[in-house]
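May I ask for an example protein's residues together with how it folds?

___
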Amino acid sequence: FPYDQPAAPRLEELAAMLTRFRETSNANKVEAIVTISPADAVAHAQIVKVMDACSIAGIEAVNFALGGDDS
């Protein structure tokens, strides 16, 4: 199964997968919710690409996970 490369200008495969997720959620009458939990080393531009993929897929409920307290 091919996946997007980090350097891709748009994450087409992710957007397609998220579209299927939204369609399945709609069919089951539940809201499609995506929670983004990026690692500290992830560039902000990559996070924006994931948010763009959510937008392309029509997912409006996008959240960010709070950082865990690893102490």
About this structure: The chain has a mean pLDDT of 90. The two ends are 38 Å apart (CA to CA). The beta strands are 33-36, 61-64.
